[in-house]
Structures are given as structure tokens and as C-alpha cells.
Specification:
single chain; 581 residues; alpha/beta; four-stranded parallel sheet
Length: 581
């Protein structure tokens, strides 16, 4: 709310070179907020911290905004906002809107996320890339950015020789072929078992599979048609997962490895002719500056293997070139596992050397940490295999259903089923998103589904509780429909609990901008959790339904605004808001 004013004051007091200073703002027991900017600036400007604070205060333009501005301690600036100013902001149509206000330059952002492999099961490792990426695109779109989703599926390469040959052997209408939708890993493992068992046979399955790779890459019509059917079956499986998770990816967003195959030879030729790539041990490689191996030798990015084949490096270079040239991205985000960091940085460095990634375009690896089991190791099944994502999600729904069946037997079977899905899936997604995306976390159903603490069900319950309050007042439809308009009644901010809730509501847009800037959805989770806590304190301290007429209407309007903010925020996380809990 006041950060731009503080930054302007710092620039006025100390010069434009300090305009970008990001003041640390935190709650204070003595005021609404406390600003810690002077302590960091004091040494740079050669002043005692309290003197630096005084100069900032002298330059601050807070007329009509604050009722009190004072310097405290070693150089903190305490701000107490004017109640009338808070009410004006809170009652403005812009504050009632469900989305966000960008307040800055708009960008064309390409976001690469999810990226499963054809004919393979999506496992818990895909959960985070899918959920984090989807939340980031939702937030950016809410702020007005143009977002282009890219699902870079693994749909090309040598494994498809054995997959196609296996498909031809079992038949399109066989139970084995149906596994591509129901249990894709089983289909892949059956093909792999055939391949491994026949490597010594001159005319065996392995030989035929290798020839299929050549046929596929050469555009053989029969082979290509089977490949298309394999991909189509896998899309059905992906879409079932996305529907279960409430992910906004569709088939239109798929841009798999196969999309770039026709451009790889020319890409390698261009890099070699320009001296950016050279032959090393039979392979064509680039050696971007700053990347070395354990012995200090330059680290290669292989773009053409010694056998003439292409790898991930080649495809990723073609991808980033396409996203800048054809999609005209200002910003390219790769929501990909943390272990790929060195590889992606080398790709980005090579693309910059080639001029395909100009300095005007930002490319960022949004690193995704691992999901761990209770033993602190990467989450796996009892058999030691990656946990299947669909099974994990269904278990979350089943656990939520058991709780809802016990606590809300008066709801219809359909209502309980819908609520169980919303709560179970929401719990899994919120647990993932509320943790820093680059850190690991332990997958724990009991903690995820708890109605206390920073969990999805806690935030969802706060929204459901407000719906119940508004329903009892006969005002639910009225307040749910108020987004983007003046509130049904003027919101008055009188009691301390109302004030704390109001100030937090006004931080919504700033929170969304921070999420988009830093690519950290956990900041939105923290905002919603605090909003739910502040609402609980408000409701405990300030009667709503039993209040006098004007106070009652004001507080109902405040409840309605909190509900819309919770619902909108959860939606940006890709989480639904249940009608009942």
C-alpha cells in the first residue's frame, strides 16, 4: 500500500540511485506497520540511522493517509493509518474486485510446466511442477499478463521404437493397449521387458524396435500413425490427472519434444558454423563460460551425440529459440525439478551466446524440490517405485470423505462426494504450494487434512463458515455477487479486529504482485492463512448477526469481502471453495 510512497521518499531524500530500495515492512505493536529502511541506508548515506529516518519522514507524502508518523528505536518508522482512508479504500469498487491489479508493465510470459512422458505414469514428482506452474499462470493472468502455457511432454526419441513395436504386437484393441490410459507404466514395462530379453536375438523384438526408431524419424506413415495413437492414448491419461487436480492445461498447450525435431539439424549446423559449438570426443558440444566439471575442465552441453542423435540439450535450445522468436516472450519460466538447474542454465547461456535469448528477455528456472516420505527420503511406494499420482490423489479424496461422512451426515451423498473431492485435492495442492517451491517437504496426509494450522482445509473452512453466516443472514447471493462493485453496505472500521482485518484485505494486490515477481506461490498461501486467522479473531470479538442494524450490515459486508478474497485467492492456487464443510 505504502511501499511506492516510501520508495519515492527515499529517492527524494538521498537521490535517484536509491529509488529501488525495498523497505522492510512488518507489523508493530505500537502502530499499524513499521518500516525498516533507515538502518540499511544509514551506512550508505553516511548518517546515523535516526537521522536517515528523519530525512525519509520529511520527504514522505502521507497527507490523508496516516494519522501518526513517528520514529522509534534505532531508526524505525512507525505508521498509523487514518481510519477514514482505510474505509475509503475498502469501500472502493477496486477493493471489492475478485482479481488483482497489476500496477506495472505487462509482459508476455511463457510458462513451461508439468511435462510428463508419453506411455509413462505420472508420479508424485510431477505433482509439484504441475501445481506450482498452474498457480503461477493463474496469478499472472489475474494481474493482466499474457500467459502462454507450454506442456513440453516427452513424446519422441529412442524409447518409442519399442513402444510402437509392442503396440503393433498386442493390437490396438487389446487389454494391454488399454493400459496406456489405465496404467501406462505397465505398458512401458512390458515393452521394456521384451526389449531387454531379446537384445541378443538377430531378428528379435529389440532389433525390430531399433528399426522402428529409424522408421519413425524417417517419417514412415504406418509407424507415424501408431505413434500418433500412442500419444493420443497418453493424452487421455494426462487429462484425467489434470481434471482430478483442477489444472488448466489442455491439449492445445502441448508442445512436446517432437514439435522441434525438424529444426534440430539446422540448429546444430548454425551453432557449429558460428563457432559456438565444436566437436569433442565425437560429439558436437557447446562450452558456455562459467561451467566446469570436478577437475576444473569446461563442462560440455552435448547438442549432437557421437552417433548423430540429438538429446535434451538440442531440443531445449530449439524450444527457447522458438519461445522467443515465435511466441515473442518477454519472460520464459521453466517450472522444472531442481536437479535440472545446471543443464537449464547451460542451455540459457548457450542461447544467449547465439543471440536467441536477448538480454531483454528474462529466462528463469523455477526450481522444484522433492516430495519426501516420512523417512525423509524421496516418496516411494512400499515396493520402492515412485508413488502413482492418481492413486495418491484418490487416497486424499477417500480420507476427506471419511471425515465428512462422520461430521456432516445430514448432507446428501452427492454433496459429501463433491466436498470430499474439493477438500482432499485442495489439501494436497495447498500443502505443496504453501512450501517454498525450491525446498523439500514431507508428504503427510494427517497434517495436510488438518483443520488447524496453515492447511488448505483451514482456509477452506473459513470460507465455508462465512458462507454459513451470510446464508443465515439471507445475504449470501447478494454478497457473493458484489465483486467489482461498491459493497451492499458501507464498511465501517471501528474495532481493532476490524482494523487488522481491513488492513490485511488491502494487501491482496501487493501480495499477488510479489508472487508474480518472485515466482513464489507460498506467499499467497501465507496471505490466505493469515486472512483466515484474522477473520476468526474478528468474528470472535465482533458480533455480526446479533449486532445493531448499521453495524450488522457493515460487518456482513466485511464478511462478504473476506469470502470473495478467500475464494479468489484459493482459485489462483487452483483450489476450489466448498459450499459446506
Amino acid at each position: 500500500m505504502v511501499v511506492p510512497r516510501v520508495q519515492a521518499a527515499i529517492a527524494t531524500a538521498f537521490g535517484d540511485e536509491f529509488r529501488g530500495t525495498d523497505p522492510v515492512i512488518r507489523p508493530s505493536q505500537f502502530a499499524d506497520i513499521q518500516i525498516n529502511a533507515a538502518l540499511a541506508l544509514a551506512r550508505k548515506v553516511g548518517l546515523p540511522p535516526r537521522d536517515a529516518a528523519a530525512r525519509i519522514v520529511d520527504a514522505l507524502d502521507l497527507d490523508g493517509v496516516c494519522s501518526l508518523v513517528e520514529i522509534s528505536g534505532p531508526g524505525f518508522i512507525n505508521l498509523t493509518f487514518d481510519g477514514t482512508w482505510i474505509e475509503e479504500l475498502l469501500n472502493a469498487p477496486t477493493a471489492q474486485a475478485a482479481g488483482g491489479d497489476g500496477h506495472g508493465p505487462l509482459h508476455r510470459v511463457v510458462v513451461d510446466y508439468s511435462s510428463p512422458n508419453v506411455a509413462k505414469e505420472m508420479h508424485v514428482g510431477h505433482l509439484r511442477t504441475t501445481v506450482v506452474g498452474d498457480s503461477l499462470v493463474r496469478v499472472m493472468e489475474a494481474l493482466g499478463h499474457t500467459v502462454i502455457r507450454q506442456n513440453h511432454i516427452g513424446d519422441w526419441g529412442t524409447p518409442f521404437g519399442m513402444l510402437i513395436e509392442h503396440w503393433l504386437e498386442v493390437g490396438e484393441d487389446s487389454p494391454e493397449a488399454a493400459l496406456l490410459v489405465d496404467d501406462p507404466s505397465a505398458f512401458y514395462q512390458a515393452a521394456r521387458a521384451k526389449f531387454d530379453a531379446s537384445t541378443e536375438e538377430p531378428d528379435g523384438f529389440a532389433t525390430r524396435a531399433r528399426l522402428r526408431v529409424v522408421a519413425l524419424q524417417g517419417g514412415d506413415p504406418e509407424t507415424f500413425a501408431v505413434w500418433e495413437r500412442l500419444v493420443a492414448q497418453s493424452k487421455r491419461y494426462f487429462n484425467a490427472i489434470y481434471a482430478m487436480l483442477g489444472i488448466s492445461l489442455t491439449d492445445d498447450h502441448i508442445a512436446g519434444e517432437s514439435s522441434y525435431d525438424a529444426h534440430l539439424a539446422q540448429l546444430c549446423q548454425e551453432l557449429e558454423e558460428r563457432g559456438i559449438a565444436r566437436i569433442s570426443e565425437g560429439a558436437l558440444c557447446t562450452f558456455p563460460a562459467g561451467f566446469t566439471g570436478r577437475e576444473g575442465d569446461p563442462l560440455p552441453l552435448i547438442i549432437r551425440k557421437s552417433d548423430g542423435g540429438y538429446g535434451y540439450g538440442t531440443t531445449d535450445l530449439a524450444t527457447i529459440r522458438y519461445r522467443v522468436r515465435e511466441l515473442q516472450a518477454d519472460r520464459v519460466l521453466y517450472v522444472v525439478g531442481a536437479p535440472q538447474n545446471v543443464h537449464l542454465r547451460m542451455v540459457m547461456a548457450t542461447a544467449r551466446d547465439a543471440g536467441w535469448l536477448p538480454d531483454t528477455v528474462e529466462a528463469t528456472h523455477v526450481q522444484i524440490g522433492n516430495v519426501l516420505g516420512e523417512d525423509g527420503k524421496i516418496l516411494k511406494s512400499r515396493a520402492g517405485n515412485p508413488v502413482k499420482l492418481m492413486a495418491l490423489l484418490q487416497e486424499a479424496v477417500d480420507r476427506a470423505r471419511a471425515v465428512i461422512d462422520a461430521n456432516r451426515p445430514e448432507l446428501s451423498d452427492e454433496e459429501r462426494a463433491v466436498t470430499a473431492r474439493q477438500v482432499g485435492i485442495g489439501a494436497v495442492k495447498y500443502a505443496d504450494l504453501s512450501t517454498g517451491h525450491d525446498t523439500e517437504y514431507v508428504f503427510d496426509f494427517d497434517r495436510m487434512l488438518a483443520l488447524s494450522g496453515n492447511t488448505g482445509p483451514y482456509v477452506q473452512y473459513a470460507a465455508a463458515r462465512i458462507r454459513s453466516i451470510l446464508r443465515k443472514a439471507g445475504a449470501l447471493e447478494q454478497h457473493e455477487a458484489a465483486a467489482g462493485t461498491a459493497p451492499a453496505a458501507t464498511i465501517a472500521v471501528v474495532e481493532p479486529a476490524e482494523r487488522a482485518l481491513a488492513l490485511h484485505l488491502l494487501e491482496y494486490d501487493a501480495t499477488l504482485r510479489k508472487v508474480a515477481e518472485l515466482l513464489e506461490p507460498h506467499r499467497l498461501c501465507a496471505y490466505l492463512f493469515e486472512l483466515a486467522q484474522l477473520f476468526t479473531s474478528f468474528y470472535d470479538q465482533c458480533p455480526v448477526l446479533k449486532a445493531e442494524d448499521s453495524v450488522r450490515e457493515s460487518r456482513l459486508a466485511l464478511c462478504g469481502l473476506v469470502l470473495r478474497r478467500l475464494s479468489a485467492g484459493l482459485d489462483l492456487l487452483g483450489i476450489e471453495t466448498p459450499e459446506n464443510m
